[in-house]
Design brief:
By secondary structure, this protein is an alpha/beta fold. Helices cover 34% and strands 20% of the residues. The longest helix has 21 residues. Bound molecules: glutamic acid.
Length: 304
C-alpha cells in the first residue's frame, strides 16, 4: 500500500472508531469518558502563602498557575478538541495541588507539553509545575525536582485485538514497536530488548494510530496510558502481559524550588488522607477498569 492509501485507511478506521464511540456500536461496551459531574470539588486553601518559592510568588503576581500536562492520554490528561477543556486523573491532581497552593483550580492555564520537552519547560519557567505520567528517576532528578510519587504505574504492551504472537516483552524480537521520544519506556525498550525495532514519535496517540493502521506491531508505555486507549477501542486493541517496570509518577517542579516541592509533597499526603485522591481516581482513571490501588509513599528527599 502506498503511504497515502495507508493514511487514508487509518483515517477511515479512526472515523469508524469515533462513530462507534459516539453512538454505542451494538455489542461493544459504551465508551466511558470521565463525566465531569462526578468530579470532586477541591477546597481552596485560604490565606496560604509560600514566599520561599519563587515559582509560587511569580504565579501569585500573575494571578493564576500555568501547569504542564498531556492532552492525548485518555483518563489521565485529555483535551476535548471541541471545548478545549482538559480532563483525567493527572488533571485532577493538578487541580487539587492548585487548591492546596491557594489558587482556584478553575483559573489554571493548562499547557500541553510532550514527554521530550518536560525538563526544558520546567527549566525555562514556561510552566509552574508538570503533571503528566512523569516518571521520577535519577537522571531526570538531575534536571528537575519531583514531588510525590502520587501513583505507581508499570511499562506494558498494547497490541491489536487479533494479535496472537505478542504476550510480553520477550516476544518483541523482529517486531516493530512504537513509543515516545524522551520517555522511560522507549529507553527501556532500546536497552533491554534490542532485537525489537523501536520507532519513536512525539505522542502515544500517533503510535496508536500507527498500530491500528498496521504500521507497527505494538505500542509500549505505562499500563495506565495503554489501558486508556484499550478501553476506548475495546474491539480493536488489547493490553497484554504483566507490567515489566516500575514508573512512579511525580509532579515536576523547577529543580531549585524546594519550597514548592515540599508544599506539593504535603498537599499530596493531605489529599490522600482526606479522600480527594481516591475520589479523583474513581472519577477518572478508575473508569478504564482498574480499582483504586493504595497510593505509593511520598518520597520527600532532601534539597540538593
Ligand atoms: N512514565 C513514562 C515517562 O515518564 C512514560 C509516559 C510518558 O512519556 O509520559 O517517560
Amino acid at each position: 500500500m502506498t503511504r497515502i492509501r495507508r493514511t487514508l485507511a487509518a483515517l477511515a478506521l479512526a472515523l469508524t472508531l469515533l462513530a462507534a464511540g459516539g453512538c454505542g456500536k451494538e455489542g461493544s461496551p459504551p465508551v466511558k469518558g470521565p463525566s465531569p459531574e462526578a468530579l470532586p470539588a477541591y477546597q481552596v486553601a485560604t490565606g496560604f502563602r509560600l514566599p520561599a518559592s519563587p515559582t509560587w510568588r511569580k504565579a501569585k503576581r500573575r494571578g493564576y498557575l500555568v501547569v504542564g500536562v498531556k492532552e492525548d492520554q485518555p483518563y489521565l490528561g485529555e483535551k476535548d478538541p471541541a471545548t478545549g477543556r482538559y480532563s483525567g486523573f493527572d488533571i485532577e491532581i493538578a487541580k487539587m495541588m492548585a487548591a492546596s497552593l491557594g489558587f482556584d483550580p478553575k483559573t489554571i492555564r493548562f499547557k500541553t507539553i510532550a514527554s521530550a520537552n518536560r525538563e526544558t519547560a520546567l527549566q525555562n519557567g514556561q510552566i509552574d509545575y508538570y503533571v503528566g505520567t512523569y516518571t521520577i528517576n535519577p537522571l531526570r532528578k538531575r534536571l528537575v525536582g519531583f514531588a510525590g510519587p502520587y501513583f505507581m504505574a508499570g511499562q506494558s504492551l498494547l497490541v491489536r485485538k487479533d494479535e496472537n504472537d505478542i504476550h510480553g516483552p520477550q516476544d518483541l524480537a523482529g517486531k516493530t514497536v512504537c513509543s515516545v521520544a524522551g520517555s522511560t519506556p522507549l529507553m527501556r525498550l532500546q536497552a533491554d530488548y534490542p532485537k525489537a525495532r523501536a520507532v519513536a514519535y512525539d505522542t502515544y496517540s500517533v503510535c496508536v494510530d500507527n498500530l491500528i493502521s498496521l504500521q507497527v506491531d505494538a505500542v509500549t508505555t505505562d499500563n495506565t496510558i495503554l489501558l486508556g486507549y484499550a478501553a476506548k477501542a475495546p474491539n480493536e486493541l488489547k493490553v497484554v502481559g504483566k507490567p515489566f517496570s516500575k514508573e512512579p509518577y511525580g509532579i515536576g517542579v523547577p529543580k531549585k524550588d524546594t519550597a514548592l516541592r515540599f508544599a506539593l509533597d504535603d498537599a499530596i499526603r493531605a489529599r490522600e488522607r482526606n479522600g480527594d485522591w481516591r475520589r479523583a481516581y474513581n472519577a477518572t482513571l478508575g473508569r478504564s477498569g482498574v480499582p483504586a490501588p493504595r497510593p505509593p509513599r511520598v518520597d520527600r528527599y532532601p534539597a540538593r
